[in-house]
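Hallway conversation turned thread

IA: we were arguing at lunch whether anyone had actually written out TetR/AcrR family transcriptional regulator end to end. Turns out nobody had. So, for the record, here is the sequence (195 residues) and right after it the structure tokens. Reply here if something looks off.
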Amino acid sequence: MKPAATKRPDAATRRAQLLDAADAVFITHGVNAPLELVVERAGVGRATLYRQFPDREAILLALLERSTELLQAQALAVQERPDAFFALLGYLSERIVRSPALSDYWRSSSLVDPRFAQVRKRVWSTLEPALAQAQRAGLVRAEVQADDISLLIGMLGAALRGTSDAERRRLARQALEVIRRGLRPDAATDAASRG
């Protein structure tokens, strides 16, 4: 009787394994960590990594694409809620806190690298319907535009100034609360009456 052959993982499985490893390494050591750490964590050879991802930027782009897919799945899960926009901002806030190095990379590199334009566009197109829904529900001022989404995400990114995970989470909650209060339809009236 022949021993059972060990089934090799397919390319998609190997790719997901490498992305999981890269995500873990970048969370711990930052996006400039040696790729050898990714190889070690994934338990693969260096050639396997480079067959899937020719360079560090390809890994980072794939991680950002995967994060965008997760955001899109989250948007589907909350799409019936009037406050879906705030639920999605909360989800993004958690992602920023969980993966500060990747978030920092997103902020800096995606502005100059044309490969990131499509990913950025997908993020905005995921959030825009939820923003419109929140406006129809009276949760967000009518003058807030889709172009403001980038600014709101930047405000959430301020949580990265925290020096510990607990501090970053506290700052993220605080940023979310400031955003929620600032976007309320009555916020403009409140500000005018104080001024």
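OS: looked through it. The domain at 62-186 is CATH 1.10.357.10 (Tetracycline Repressor; domain 2).
IA: good, adding that to the notes. The mean pLDDT is 87.
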